[in-house]
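Technical note accompanying the year-one report. For the benefit of new consortium partners, we illustrate the data format agreed upon in the data management plan: each record pairs a sequence with a structure-token string. No post-processing was applied to the example shown here.
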Amino acid sequence: MNPALQPSKIAIIQTAFIGDVVFASPLCRAIKRAYPESSLTFVCTPRALDVARALPGVDRAIAFDKRGQHRGFGGLRRIAIDLNGPDLVVVPHLSPRSALLAFLSRHSSPKQMRIGWSSGLLRPFFTHPVIKDRTLSFVRRTLKCLEPLGIESETSLSLIAPSVEIEKARAIPNIDRGIGLIIGSERVTKRWPAASFAQLADAIVERGQTPVFLGAPNEKTIAEEILATMQQPNSALNLVGNTIAESMGVIHCLRGVIGGDSGLVHISRALHRPTVVLFGPTSPIMHDWETHARPVSLSFDCQPCHRHGPQKCPRGDLRCLRQLDVHLVIKAFEALKPPV
């Protein structure tokens, strides 16, 4: 740890996807451990606000609506003022907008330390630019921002589900026998077919457990398609459309979770639930796996084809997910030995 730095106010700016906010949890934990008396503020998109509030060590979360009310320089300026002159700013996100926000926040802290990527035109915005290593996993890449501080960290993900949402979830019938199925993803090419989820859900019912569908509001039609294909649809619990906070409360109470490479699935990992992650176009080697989490992939020669998932399958058949067998997924989940 840098002995000369004793920040009273720290800001972390990560305005990418929900999964990227989850991947910042080891960073937050390490910084708070190094500077326990500091106030840690996390800046994220409005959609990721519930996740930011659940990050270990975060005292305050700010929603930066970069495509809405905070669009343009005026919006950046308002958020910068709201940060109230942090002594230390960390930006684990390759973004000109985030870099400029960090720079603008220095107005009342002239000796501010700013850590971010040295790529291209971003370097002048930071007092301590760091080289971004794309060969590293998502979490290890983020943790490189700790190097100027002389801090080290483990890579395991962690979140703290809201207690009020946990209590609400516990009131749901049979939730303690539930297996969460994350049915969607930000990219269509990372979604396991509805027919496969229906087969998996029926297999869960046959084992005396409850399939619990989780996902974003715009994925309700996927849930309806799965239910229409199931043999025992009345045995499933459809919670697709819940808020992120509500979903975290539910996941906390489940026996485990299965789903594609998406934010909610990585939230499950961070909540320490047995989790199976289905990989198609993206790569499982970009993650550091906890003992309670396991990736499943067919490993075709065309995999992976994209870092975050393409808009369309280059082959046109999405065989990497369509040929992913339900029995293989069940076997991987049972190997995790979910809690009784």
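Partners are asked to follow this layout when depositing records. The first helix runs from residue 18 to 23.
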